[in-house]
Design brief:
The complex is a heterodimer of chains A (115) and B (112). With 115 residues, chain A is an all-beta fold. In chain A, 0% of the residues lie in helices and 57% in strands. In chain A, strands 2, 4, 5, 9, 10 and 11 form a six-stranded mixed beta sheet that branches. Chain A has a five-stranded antiparallel beta sheet with strand order 1-3-8-7-6, with no helix packed on it. Chain A starts with a strand and ends with a strand. Chain B is built from no helices and eleven strands. In chain B, a hairpin with a 7-residue loop joins strand 9 and strand 10 (102-103). The chains are: A mainly beta (115), B mainly beta (112). At the A-B interface, strand 4, strand 5 and strand 9 of A face strand 5, strand 9 and strand 10 of B.
Chain lengths: 115, 112
């Protein structure tokens, strides 16, 4: 069974204070690892897809990295508008195509950035 | 959430009544999904569809049924709502195998 564990559950930062969120996973062959951002009362918004160990993706102050067992979302000099819940999800490569691109999600890290 | 719409956004219903939630997409994507999101559990897959009239169960499908008669619409039905089905329900779509999802804005359902 695919599993995703995110840590910490909650993180409070001061504006400009860089940090990292962790996503540990177990999956029977990783096809893709996904990061999403979710604001209160809204659906998750896609940020990144990572496919293989060593891969990195960047978007503004966010940088996602991937190893064979975990992924990190690095936040550099965060701003209050980066406050949100960040979700990690994995997709197994063993699924049949008719099964769709089923994702298994972690519970998320709630990030608060204070001005 | 351009291209994907959920209705209603909020609903309060009584235990034992049937409830249908609707997901409508304008992207012509093959895959559609229903998830529920609860504190302590994160997002859990209820049902999904890989084409018109092609659906399958997810990890928490008991008490739910789905239908997809057109590419653009995916309906989730609670045949007899229970308090344990109080949750926020999200619909998602994906273009093809290996792609991430685009989510709708969610439906907050309360069963009293």
């Amino acid at each position: 069974e695919d599993q995703v564990t995110q840590s910490p559950e909650a993180l409070r930062l001061q504006e400009g204070e860089s940090s990292s969120l962790n996503c540990s996973y177990t999956v029977s062959g990783l096809r893709g690892l996904f990061w999403y951002r979710q604001d209160p009362g809204k659906g998750p918004e896609f940020l990144f897809t990572l496919y293989s160990a060593g891969e990195e993706k960047e978007k503004e102050r966010l940088k996602a990295t991937l190893t064979k067992k975990e992924s990190f979302l690095h936040i550099t000099a965060p701003k209050p508008e980066d406050s949100a819940t960040y979700l990690c999800a994995v997709q197994a490569s063993s699924r049949q195509e008719t099964s769709g691109s089923r994702l298994t999600f972690g519970e998320g890290t709630q990030l608060t950035v204070n001005p | 959430d351009a291209g994907i719409t959920q209705s209603p956004r909020h609903k309060v219903t009584e235990t034992g009544t049937p409830v249908t939630l609707r997901c409508h997409q304008t992207e012509n994507h093959r895959y559609m999904y229903w998830y529920r999101q609860d504190p302590g559990h994160g997002l859990r897959l209820i049902h999904y569809s890989y084409g018109v009239k092609d659906t399958d169960k997810g990890e928490v499908s008991d008490g739910y049924s789905v239908s997809r008669s057109k590419t653009e619409d995916f309906l989730l039905t609670l045949e007899s709502a229970t308090s344990s089905q109080t949750s926020v329900y999200f619909c998602a779509i994906s273009e093809r195998w290996g792609y991430g999802y685009t989510f709708g804005s969610g439906t907050r359902l309360t069963v009293v």
